[in-house]
Amino acid sequence: MSDLTVEMVQRGRGPSTQEANRRRGIAREIRSAREKLTSTTGLERAFDYELLRLYAQYRVGAGIPLGLFAVALAAASVFWVPPVVAAVWALCVFATITLITTLSRHFLRQNPGDVSLARWRRLFVLSEGMQSLCWSLMIGLGATGGRIFALFGLVIAAAVATMLGATVPAAAVAGLGPLVLATLSLLLFSREPDAILLVAMALGSQLFFMGLARRLYTSTVGALQSRAEKDAIFGELEQAKANSDEARRRAEEANLAKSRFLATMSHELRTPLNAILGFSEVMKNEVFGPHTALSYQEYSNDIHDSGMHLLNLINEILDLSRIEAGRYELNEEALQLAHIVEECRHMMGLRARQKGQIFLDFVDDSLPRLWADERALRQIVLNLLSNAVKFTPPGGEITIKVGWTSSGGQYVAVKDSGPGIPEDELGTVMSSFGRGSLAIKTAEQGSGLGLPIVKGLVDLHGGQFQLKSKPREGTEVIVTLPATRVMDTLPAMSVEPGNLPAKAAAKAA
After folding, report:
1. DSSP label at 404?
2. What does the DSSP 8-state code read for residue 490?
3. What are the boundaries of the region Disordered (predicted)?
4. Are residues 344 and 305 located together in one domain of the fold?
5. For the chain, which terminal residue's Cβ has fewer other Cβ atoms within 10 angstroms, N or C?
6. Do 423 and 441 fall into the same domain?
7. At 23, is the pLDDT very low, low, confident or very high (cuts 50, 70, 90)?
8. Same domain, 313 and 228
9. Beta bridge partners of 335
């Protein structure tokens, strides 16, 4: 039977993350294509509305400046036309400016979802054409001697119309058309080379403004598309965050259920295990007499060893689950790291001698005490020595080092002369229940929890765990405890006899 992977489980629960992202992208593209098909400009409705909204905002903001500009032109035109004619022209321009400003304000006050984009686009184009027609009436000055002044006004009006209407290309064209015709009509009043050159320059300027308006429209659409993509990304991030929070909540519930299960199962398993271990030890030691069959002695040993192995496995699983859940409580006290290492080495000495292995000790006995959990440190050192003895070949060497770190902390390092671990398996041996290929091939007993437990206990002490190994060069594990856990020795206090209490001074005398 093939192994059940996380990907297979995830696929069974629902689509993967990549598949979900692909589906969201397809749905977004379909929605965008549908909106483009129903749009008259080939853009999505949201873009059409934004372009009209920008046009309305520009027109509302330009109302007062355009009115003042019309007043200035009307005042200057009295040199060529009667004041009444200039006033009528200014009122015409004022009326169209007021019309566009009123329409723009009304558009901005409406709910975006209720706006008829095609209708408002037609209104803006029509009003833009009317205003441009009023501006083009300045051509009357050309017949009375103000040709250059009229050209100046027409060029300025063309620049304003194309820039303000850039987000609605039809409105920009409607605003520029009457001004171009008015500029061409100036040739009817004069055919001098200078006049033709001025008209050509004015027409070139107006066409340049039209091209510039087209570029502004393109850049505005690009900015809107970029903003829409950014908003979509933000939306996906928010959705991903919500999914992550939900997944974290479920993981916490699953972890709580796992902790409850382990607590219950540990009690249910330890109760019969105590009986198995007790009775098997009685049978193994032949307390009530020798066995009639020698096989019973072997069976008793196997039962006891298997029970001890199962008990150790249960304890390791519980320790790892408490470490991962953050519920492992440290009972800290002052202790000597060198003494703990020496006691653990002595405990593992029998197993090492059975395999002909040699311990090489480089221990600094002058190290000050550490503030740490004694049981946790013993478990760390025993796990490291047990792995070293397990994977070191008969007659090999195991090096133990205890000393200072460069930052003022203390370290313990265990190095064996075994076959080593391939680089691609370092992550495997550090994972829960992970075992390297060497352990599997040699059928070495072990749960694969030793190193994860060591790393977890080291992390609880604020230390560092480092695993170094190469094939045919052995394996070295270095555990470093921070300088904050080193207890400095306080200097002796020198007190003068006169400063001692009466009883202490009498004893000192």
Report:
1. E
2. P
3. 1-25
4. no
5. N
6. yes
7. low
8. no
9. 370
Cross-strand pairs, 464: 480
Asked if 152 and 229 sit in the same domain, the reply is yes
198 is written with which tokens?
């001025």
Pairwise CA distance, residues 158 & 164, whole Å: 10
Decide if 139 contacts 154 (C-beta within 8 A): yes
Pick the more confident residue, 505 or 280: 280
Q: At what angle do helices 193-284 and 147-164 cross, to 10 degrees?
A: 20
Q: 3-state secondary structure string, 214-256?
A: HHHHHHHHHHHHHHHHHHHHHHHHHHHHHHHHHHHHHHHHHHH
Q: Is residue 494 part of a domain?
A: no
Per-residue pLDDT averaged across 183-209, rounded?
Answer: 80
Identify the domain containing residue 309 by its residue range: 261-325
Nearest of 368, 309, 379, 311 to residue 341 by alpha carbon: 379
Q: How confident is the model at residue 506 (pLDDT cuts 50, 70, 90)?
A: very low
Residue 446, pLDDT > 60, answer no
Residue 317 lies in a domain: yes
> What is the pTM for the complete model shown?
0.47
Does residue 29 sit in the same domain as residue 119? yes
Residue 503's pLDDT is 47
For 47-57, what is each residue's pLDDT tens digit?
Answer: 788 888 888 89
Paired sense of beta strands 410-416 and 370-373, if any: unpaired
Q: Return the amino acid letter for 16.
A: S
**Residue-level pLDDT at 349:** 86
Tokens describing residue 97: 């400016």
Shared-domain flag, residues 23 and 160: yes
Q: Are 202 and 304 found together in one domain?
A: no
Looking at the structure, do residues 233 and 344 belong to the same domain, yes or no? no
Q: Which of 139, 143, 152, 146 is nearest to 77 (CA)?
A: 146
What Cα–Cα distance (Å) separates residue 418 from each residue in 391, 396, 411, 470, 474? 6, 8, 22, 10, 5
- Distance (Å, rounded) from C-alpha 192 to C-alpha 452? 96
DSSP one-letter string for 302-324:
HHHHHHHHHHHHHHHHHHHHHHH
d(CA 261, CA 346): 37
Calpha distance 404→483 (Å, rounded) = 9
> What average pLDDT does the chain have?
79
DSSP secondary structure, 146-199, as one string:
-HHHHHHHHHHHHHHHHHHTTTSHHHHHHHHHHHHHHHHHGGGT---HHHHHHH
Structure token digits, residue 372: 């740490």
- Tokens 């972890």 locate to 255
Structural domain tally of the chain?
3
